[in-house]
Amino acid sequence: MRNVIFGGANSLDNLFARPDGGVDWLLWSEEAAAVTMDSWKSVDTMILGRKTYEVARRMGPGPSELAGLQSYVFSRTLPDEPGVNIVREDVAAFVRRLKGESGKDICILGGGELARPLFEADLIDRVGLNIHPVLLGTGVPVFHAMTRSIQLELEDCRRFKNGCVFVSYRVIHT
Amino acid sequence: MRNVIFGGANSLDNLFARPDGGVDWLLWSEEAAAVTMDSWKSVDTMILGRKTYEVARRMGPGPSELAGLQSYVFSRTLPDEPGVNIVREDVAAFVRRLKGESGKDICILGGGELARPLFEADLIDRVGLNIHPVLLGTGVPVFHAMTRSIQLELEDCRRFKNGCVFVSYRVIHT
To answer: Is A151 in the B-facing interface, judged by CB distances under 8 Å?
Structure first.
């Protein structure tokens, strides 16, 4: 079955971005780029929240054009737009259906708000984080409070030259 | 100058304990014990918050008897007690003075509430975390929202056999 993957670059205090979405603290590295390229090989579908979609759109071409992937943007407020799949239904129901269809892996992009109901519905299969050597202090959380705990199995751990630590986990489904 | 050290065992979603203080999810390992023993060699002073102190007291002998260390408990509500140094003053002012005195390193034990004003006052020198392969979902945070960001330098990163990842950082003072 297709894996649902959640993750990204985070601070040691588990934030994805500053309060305004700023990612000035991100460290680029060939090592991180190689890991990212490698993990995207297995992905053909992206799930984005509205905020992440708006940041991505400001940064250039639409995310699906960028990567040649099928993408879905979850929003109750965005108007329909040509070339963008705006989804208004419950994210867990949608992803559960998508996992049942044939295809490659599904990547959850951006803030933890979208990931929270997916974790709670036990629909996420892998978690990957590139932990940056910084405490941002305040910003956009990677993990929101959840109604359950989730056991993980460490699959990979790499120390990058720039002081980042890449960790990747498999979710132990219950 | 004496180092002020903050850290402990945390979940991947950066919690020190379940909402009731529960640490049933902690994995014991010889590797973690060795790292802990090693880091305690440089320490002669412990700073505890009230909640951590009460948990430690329930678990057996007082923390200072356990380790033969000087310990200070920060609380505005605890009554004086023989053999316990209850401190009622501002934690940042107290730790700043302690750092100026001669002695070995100072360890901040327990929840992030005590650490937050110390990070904000740039008084913490090292951060060490033993990241456990679990998302607790809700509980006692390691890092609270802060008024500033803090740059770190990765000093150590070890993958333990039980799936924990130990990371230790030096704070880059500003």
So the answer is: yes
Query: Measured between alpha carbons, how far apart are the two ends of chain A, in Å?
Result: 16
3-state helix, strand, coil in chain B (%, to 5): 25, 35, 40
pTM, 2 dp: 0.93
ipTM field? 0.93
Contacts with B144 (C-beta within 8 Å, 6 or more apart), sequence order:
B112, B113, B115, B116
Segments of chain B assigned E as strands:
4-11, 15-17, 43-49, 70-74, 85-87, 105-109, 126-132, 134-135, 140-141, 150-159, 165-171
Residue of B nearest to A148 (CA): B137
Shortest CA distance to B164 belongs to which of B15, B34, B19, B10?
B10
With b for 16 or more beta-carbon neighbours within 10 A and e for fewer, the A96-122 pattern comes to eebbeeeeebbbbbbbbbbbbbbbbee
Side-chain-side CA neighbours of B35 within 13 Å: the count stands at 21
Q: Which of A14, A120, A126 to mutate to test the interface with B (most CBs of B within 10 A)?
A: A14
Contact A96, A121 (CB under 8 A): yes
* Inter-chain residue contact B163 with A150, CB threshold 8 Å: no
pLDDT grade, residue A61 (50/70/90)? Answer: low
Domains defined along chain B, listed by start: 4-171 (3.40.430.10)
The answer to which of B57-61, B85-89, B103-107 has the lowest mean pLDDT is B57-61
**pLDDT, averaged across chain A:** 91
Q: And the tokens for B101?
A: 């005195």
Distances in Å between the Cα of A29 and the Cα atoms of A9, A116, A134, B117 are 12, 29, 16, 33
